[in-house]
Amino acid sequence: MRKLLVAVAILISNVGFAQISNISLNGAPARLTAYEGVEGSPYLFEDWARADFGTTNAGLKEKVAYRFNIYDNEFEVINEAGNKIYLNKDYVEYAMLERPSILIATGTPGMLTNLLFKKGYTMIKGVGEKDFVNVLAEGGGYTLVRKFYSDLVTPPKNSYAPTAGRMFVFEESYYLVDSDGNVSTVRNKTNNIIKSLKDKDQDKAKEIVKEGKLDLSREDHLVIFFQKLNEA
Questions:
Q1: How far apart are CA 74 and CA 90, in angstroms?
Q2: N or C: which end of the chain has fewer CB within 10 A?
Q3: How do residues 154-193 score in pLDDT, each as one tens digit?
Q4: Where is the signal peptide (predicted)?
């Protein structure tokens, strides 16, 4: 197994990042991709952005330039030589990913500027030990997790295309984990989430939504809702 101790610094003139020195992270050189000619993207965000990484071997490393390849579930960063590396996920405890500013400016209301990714949610079907998922809320009562997918598919031939080409299809799924470890798939809709709660918590949940005028299709309202519910 190849391991490199890399001094990661941010020096990407074409995306406007200033250099940050003395950042040590473990990783391996990014592989040449086979994505040429494939429509869509394997990345959560196509544009480079910044992230903070909590690691077991190098502590907290801030403002690292990244892209998150959700097809391979790999964090791609840039070292000081301008080379791309994939972080060794064995040493990454969590990642706080900034959304590119253009998405905040043009996206839907309530989008979070930062997204927390963690591993350890193997109770969710299809999530492995080293897979990072987006944790929107985490508490003693309920935890809400979102998994992003970028599936590589081959659409069937049709009259508009002489040959079938490959393309990435973006998807996301939400999972609710209760205090007993039960996992249910939910939609980011107010009624659906309330009905997915334990019976004893549903009246309180309705009260929280009503008092806060919350719309649980919004990311920021989801965070507020589960914070209040877990504190109740």
A1: 12
A2: N
A3: 776 665 554 457 888 899 999 999 999 999 999 999 999 9
A4: 1-18
